[in-house]
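Q: My labmate handed me this sequence with no annotations at all. I'd like to see what the chain might look like in three dimensions before we decide whether it's worth expressing. Could you predict it?
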Amino acid sequence: MRTTINLDDDIYYTTKHIASHENKTAGEVLSQLARLGLQIQATSSSAINETTKFDRELADLGLIPYAAQNGKIVTNQLVNDMRDEEGI
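A: Here is what I predict for the chain of 88 residues:
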């Protein structure tokens, strides 16, 4: 479906960056991110303040999952992109 939307500059540039690295269109990236956001929202709203088995296993390993700050989710792809940008 074609539509026109207004995006904040950071969302626009991040979407274009991801699209170019994944050889996708901006629309495909935005659709993927929207689906992910909706899945996370649905999951988190039904499990607020519940400690999952997975969370406990991570904690046993010394890895504590943190809630996304400012709606930004750090993914492996984001970390890899940042490494590429910094030349690491």
